[in-house]
Design goal:
The complex is a heterodimer of chains A (about 180) and B (about 180).
Chain A lengths: L1 H22 L1 E3 L2 E2 L2 E2 L4 H8 L15 E8 L2 E9 L4 E8 L5 E2 L9 H7 L4 E10 L4 E12 L6 E8 L2 E9 L8
Parallel strand pairs in A: 1-7
Antiparallel strand pairs in A: 1-2, 2-3, 4-5, 5-6, 6-11, 8-9, 9-10, 10-11
Chain B lengths: L1 H24 L8 E4 L2 E2 L2 E2 L4 H8 L15 E8 L2 E9 L6 E8 L4 E3 L9 H7 L5 E9 L2 E12 L6 E7 L2 E8 L6
Parallel strand pairs in B: 1-7
Antiparallel strand pairs in B: 1-2, 2-3, 4-5, 5-6, 6-11, 8-9, 9-10, 10-11
The chains are: A alpha+beta (about 180), B alpha+beta (about 180).
């Protein structure tokens, strides 16, 4: 009887741990329960917030960044569309709780990312302070991990001195305009 | 005296080996190396006309596609100063007819200014160009199947669309390529 009880406890703890890990999993689809493509209604329900637009709908502006909390963690949400129908195009976080299924997250070094994702496309470049003059920020590097099966989907790591400091999920910037 | 000679010999041997290992990790081009840059390899420069190439290589390049069957590129395997090279020509203007669009070699004598070439580590290549955008991707075995051991690093010119491509097998460079244009596919 005691053994059965212990076994059930173990199963319960395992299920809880798995559920908790899934809450913070970063993938090409999104972060945890927040999935790219979610509309206003789904986002408001999941995050228990009321989205008040300030930029989308002003003139021809079609994107807006809003701050939100997900399970107590600060997130930035990138919305795209018009006033009536917009959706989640991207998410970013600096929380160390979020990791890819391979364990890549805040603090991971550049070499680990390069070795871990040999089967995907990696686009590595310095962060541009000014896109027009191509002035770069020396210690900051961007590694875009583009899904090799759909190169428009990406997980974007920002690194400072070769360590990840922020993670973003969204469209691959380099292929936005590709037909 | 004999006691002194033995440690001195040991020290000399250690120094010799340490120098040798330093040379392989931070190799710099030697005088007899051919410099690989965004412009080309040694005197072979991207954009050179077919005529210019023929003079430089002292050989006749017979086009099989450009101006022949409507194709817009031709590939030639040739030797340049005794080194095997593959030259990619694209359609040129009325005067040039065809122009040098890319060069590829697997010769260890061809190195970039930072010393990268055949035998260099994949990570060294990535670290050598902090100011450039780099595309690191598995190569196709047979499209659409991507290789698990072969990859390519395309280092893009900061000012234009030219690129140096380092073809990698098992994390070591096996050939170097310079192109006037790179696009991931």
């Amino acid at each position: 009887m005691k053994k059965i009880f212990l076994f059930l406890c173990f199963v319960f703890v395992s299920i809880c741990a798995t559920a908790q890990n899934n809450d913070y999993t970063v993938s090409f689809e999104g972060m945890g329960a927040i999935k790219l493509g979610m509309n206003k209604a789904k986002l408001e329900k999941l995050l228990n917030l009321k989205i008040l637009l300030k930029e989308i709908g002003v003139g021809v502006v079609m994107n807006e960044t809003i701050k939100a909390k997900y399970m107590g963690i600060d997130m930035e949400l990138y919305l795209f569309g018009d006033e009536k129908s917009y959706f989640l195009e991207g998410i970013s976080t600096t929380s160390p709780l979020f990791k890819t299924i391979d364990g890549i997250g805040i603090g991971t070094d550049q070499l680990t990312i390069i070795n871990k994702y040999e089967k995907h496309l990696l686009i590595i470049h310095p962060e541009y302070v000014d896109e027009i003059s191509a002035k770069t920020s020396k210690p900051r590097t961007i590694i875009t991990l583009a899904n090799i099966d759909n190169y428009r989907e990406a997980i974007i790591f920002t690194l400072v001195n070769k360590k990840v400091v922020a993670i973003e999920v969204g469209p691959t910037p380099q292929f936005r305009d590709r037909e | 005296m004999k006691k002194l000679i033995l440690p001195a010999f040991g020290l000399f041997t250690c120094l010799l080996f340490s120098c040798k290992s330093k040379e392989t990790t931070t190799a710099t081009p030697q005088n007899n190396d051919f410099i690989v840059s965004m412009n080309g390899i040694d005197s072979l420069k991207l954009g050179m006309s077919k005529d210019g190439l023929e003079k430089l290589l002292n050989t006749k390049l017979t086009l099989r596609h450009i101006t022949v069957d409507g194709g817009y590129s031709d590939t030639f395997s040739t030797k340049y100063k005794g080194i095997d090279m593959v030259l990619y020509l694209k359609e040129g203007n009325e005067q040039s007819i065809a122009e040098l669009d890319g060069i590829r070699t697997n010769s260890p004598l061809c190195k970039t200014a930072s010393g990268n070439g055949v035998g260099s580590d994949k990570i060294n290549v990535i670290d050598s160009y902090p100011d450039n955008t780099k595309y690191v991707t598995p190569e196709y075995e047979v499209e659409p199947v991507r290789s698990t051991t072969k990859s390519v690093i395309a280092v893009i010119d900061t000012a234009g669309s030219r690129a140096m491509q380092f073809h990698i097998v098992n994390k070591k460079v096996v050939s170097v390529e310079v192109n006037s244009y790179y696009e991931f596919y």
